[in-house]
Amino acid sequence: MEMTPRERFLATAAFEPLDRPFRMETIGFWRETLARWQGEGLPPEAGDEMGAFIHFGVDLQLPVLLGAHEHPGFDPLFDETVIEQDERYIVKIDKSGARVKVLADGASTIPAFLEAPVKDEESWEEVKWRLDPETPGRLEPWMVIIETAKTVPFPLCVYISGLFGTHRHLLGFTPLMLAYRRQPQLLHAISRHWVAFWKGVLSRIAEVKSPDMVMLWEDMCYLNGPMIGPDTFEAFMLPYYKELIAFIKGDLEVPVIGVDSDGRITKLIPFFVAAGVNFLWPFEVQAGMDVLEVRRQWPRQFVIIGGMDKRALYHDRDTIRAEVLRVVPPMLAAGGYIPSIDHAVPPEVSLDNWLYFLELVRETGGVH
Asked: Strand pairing partners for 101?
């Protein structure tokens, strides 16, 4: 019997039998990728990310995006203010309150970080009011989606900023690294508020409809390993993770808790599992992540999404086929796997290659 997307998603998370694999072959598309594909025959209605997901027949979800990679959950956001500008660059205060340098032409790139909104306890107190779970109107833009989740067969997925992500949003990367030694009391104060803040926000959502998944954005690993070591994670993150996840799973009855982190996450997996995380992505191949080995070491503890090298899609069909067959059959046989490349689709990928990849993945998953 054919499952709904929500049933299929939850069955995947529980390592239960499926009618077919959940379809989410990428976490997204670069804006430049969709622009390229428009010139290669992609119809206009598929020119943005949601339109593309619908066009390519993925299993849709109902996303509630409460900051995550963009900001730590501020409401209201900071007013974006341009400080200086020339032909190539813009220096501005962005909506997270950080002073950043970006390309003037709007091309997709990681902004150059110049200054963060929090430097000490005093500046933390000045921004903390933006992280009040009771802020009027905080959930208003998402209430239609949350209400809709009560009557449609799609999983309700809430995306929030994780704890390392929040620390980095507020302090900036280099000051955060120094703060672990010089300002531990500030980090613990932020962490206590992080737990209380998300307990409050997620409780308000659950009063209408309990989410099927809460996903925490972290991006706390580089090519060769994590940005902080296991001891630092255990001291500054694990207790707060455990408290929040126990509340989300227990009090709110949310079955899936995910973490999104690029890079080589291997050394942190035991700590995420200990905290109650049961969904990890995207397992970047270029960072040395091998989902086959991860699954051997962790056979049923968490769902894996990703692990197929997006760079294979730059090349010919034989290369694409080899990568799909390397990963998909053994991972589906092991269970708890959603076939996907290891990040968003970059503009080096042609539309023809993407369509071939989709067809092959879905055929390999047993559905033509």
From this structure: 91, 112
Exposure string for 294-330, b = 16+ CB within 10 A, e = fewer: bbeeeeebbbbbbbbbbbbbeeeeeebeebbebbbee
Between CA 307 and CA 336 the distance in angstroms is: 13
Neighbours of 156 (CB within 10 A): 24
Residue 368 above 60 pLDDT?
no
> How far, in Å, CA of 313 to CA of 149, rounded?
34
The domains found in the chain, sorted by start residue, are 5-76+116-364 (3.20.20.210), 79-115 (no CATH)
Antiparallel, parallel or unpaired: β 99-103 and 256-261: unpaired
Summarize pLDDT for 301-356 with one digit per residue, the tens: 999 999 999 999 999 999 999 999 999 999 999 999 999 999 999 999 999 999 99
How many helices (H) and strands (E) the chain has is answered by 14, 11
β-strand partners of 338: 305
Tell me 263's DSSP state.
S
For the chain, what percentages of helix, strand and coil (3-state, to nearest 5) are there? 45, 15, 40
Q: How far apart are CA 131 and CA 197, in angstroms?
A: 7
CA atoms in the 13 A half-sphere facing the CB of 236: 25
| Cβ pair 30, 36 in contact under 8 A | no
80 phi and psi angles, rounded to 5 deg: -70, 130
